[in-house]
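Side project, low priority. Logging it here so it doesn't get lost.
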Amino acid sequence: MKKNLEQINDQSLNRLIEFLNSGFEILMESDLVALLFHCYLLTEKELLNKIHIETRILNIERKRIDFAIGKVTNENKRPSIKPELVIECKIFSNGFTNSQLLKRFKYLKEDIEKVGLWTS
């Protein structure tokens, strides 16, 4: 890659913010993940084969990560990603009821735990 991952991350997230500030409307988490994919690929085309969506991470069983950058490995029984970067997305849309918000916070906690498994 021409740029290091920290530079790519900074530039990609700045592009994401520009899109969001220009009126791109997020309805579902998949919209945000798709926009992340687009922003990272615009920033560094060589990531094409390293960006993975809803994917398995090496040594984390039965959990999927929303967005990861890394190489595919066959170290375990199934192909998985040896990540350099993982991103879990969670949106809290306007109009959610208290019950829906409580459920989203439960999912948020689970996402934080997933990311913690990768970093440990």
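Brief comment: The longest strand covers residues 64-73.
Revisit when time allows.
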